[in-house]
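User: Can you write out an input/output pair for a complex, sequences first and structure second?

Assistant: Here is one pair. Inputs:
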Amino acid sequence: MKYKSQKVAYWFFALCMLLFSLQIIYGFIMGFDRIGIQGLHEIVPFNVARAVHTNLLVVWLLTGFMGAAYYIIPEEAQRELISVKWAYVQLISLAVVGVVAIVGFHFNHWEGRKFLEIPRELDFLVVINVLLFLGLILGTLFKGKRQTTTALVLTMGLLFAALLYLPGMIWFDSQVMDSFFRWWVVHLWVEGVWELIMGGILSYLLIKLTGVDREVIEKWLYVIVGLTFLSGVLGTGHHYYYIGVNKIWLIVGGIFSALEPLAFLAMALFAVNMYRKGEKSHPNKIALFWTIGSSIVSFVGAGLLGFAHTLPQTNLYTHGTLVTAMHGHYAFWGAYAMIVLAIISYALPNLTGRKRYQSATGMAAFWLSNIGMLGMTVAFGVAGIVQVYLERKMKMEFMVVQNEISIHFVVLLICATMFTTGIGLFIYDFVKYGRPSDEALEV
Ligand code: HEM
Ligand code: HEM
Ligand SMILES: [Fe+2]
C-alpha cells in the first residue's frame, strides 16, 4: 500500500467475511427447510431466515464497497484519508446497526418489504452512518492531488446509492405506491448505481493488474456508465408490469430492460480486452481471476439470466417463482460478490506485505465457489421451470408444487456445500495473510 490510512480497508474486509459467513448459514437453514429438515423452525422460521439471508447479503456487499473505497480513494487521490479515527467510528457503528437489525428480525421486528426489511427508525441510523462515510470519502477525494475518472465513478456510485435509499423510507398507505418506490431502491441499486461502483472497482483493478494505460481503460468506463443509465433507469419498468400501475410500463419496461444486458456485455468485453492487451503480467493471478471472472459471470447472471424473464410475455409466467432466485443468486454473485472478493484478493498482499500470490488454497477457493454457485443456479433454475409449469400451466396448488420440487433442493444443498468449501478456503487464506502492517508501506 502507498498510504497508511488504507489499512482501514482491512477491517471493513474482515467484517465483510464475517457477515458473508453468517449469510451462508441462513441460506443453509432455508435449504434444509425446503427438504423437510426443520429443526430450527421454532427459532428461525423460513421467512425470518430469508430476510436475514438477503439483508446480510446487502450489508456485507456494502461493507465490501466501503472497504474498497477506503482502499482505492487515497491511492487515486494521492493523499491519506482525511480522518482514520472517524473511519473506525463509522465501521463500528455500521456493525452495531447491522447486528441490531438482524437480531430484531428474529423477534419479528421488521418490515415485510423484501430487501428493505430494516425498520424505519433504524434507517435513520443507516443514513447517519452513510453520511459519515461519504463525508470521509468525498473529503479525501476533493482535498487530494487529483480526481481520476475511476475515483469519480466509484464515488458517484456510492453517493447515488445513498440518495436512492431515501425513497424507500417514505411511508405510503397504498401497497402500489410502496411497491413503486421500493423498486427505486432495489432495482436502481443493482441495475443502476451499483454498476457504477462495480465499474469503478473494475477499472481500478484492470489498471493495476493489466498495466494498460489509464486513458484507454477510463474511456471504456464512460461507455459503461452511458449504457447503464440509458437502459437501467427506465428498465425499472420490468417490475411494474403487474403491480397495479399504468399499462404503459409493459412496453417501456420491456424495451429498456431488454437493453440492460448491453452494459454487462460491455463490462465483460472491456475486462477481457484489457487483459489481452495488457503486457504487464501482474503476479497476483488470483486477483486477476476474480476480476475477469466477475465481469463474465455478471454478464451471464445479470445480463442473460435477467433477460430470460424480463419481457412481459415471459414474466407473466415466471414472476414470483424460483426463476427469480436462480437469476438473483448468479447476478449478485457475479457482479457484486465476485468484485468484492477481487478487490480483497488484490488488496490483501499490499496491506499485509505478504505476497502469497501462488496460494493453492486461493485458486481452489475461486474454482470451488464458482462451480458450486453455477450448480446452485442450475438447481434453482430447474426447480423454477418445473414450478412455472406445474403451478402456472397445470394450475396445481402452490404447496403441492412446493413438495414436488423439493428434490431440487437436495441438489442445491450439495452444490451449496461445494460453494461453501470454496468460501471457507477464501476465508482461510484471508486469515493466513494476517493483519495489515506498516512494514507493507511502499516508499
Ligand atoms: C451457499 C449457500 C446458499 C444457500 C443454500 C442459499 C439458499 C437460498 C434459498 C433457499 C433462498 C430462498 C429461495 C426461495 O424463495 O425459496 C435464497 C434466497 C436468496 N439468496 Fe441465497 N443461498 C446461498 C448463498 C447465497 C449467496 C452467496 C448469494 C449472493 C451472492 C445469495 C443470494 C440470494 C438472494 C438474492 C436471494 C433472494 C432471491 C429472490 O429474491 O428470489 N444466496 N437463498
Ligand atoms: C447485477 C445485476 C442484477 C442483480 C444483482 C439482480 C438481482 C435481482 C433480484 C435479487 C431480483 C428479485 C428482486 C425482488 O423480487 O425483490 C431480481 C428481479 C428481476 N431481475 Fe434482476 N438483477 C440484476 C440485473 C438484471 C438485469 C440486467 C435484468 C434484465 C435484463 C434483470 C431482470 C430481472 C427481472 C425481470 C426481475 C423480476 C422478477 C420478477 O419479480 O418477476 N435483472 N433481480
Ligand atoms: Fe430490475
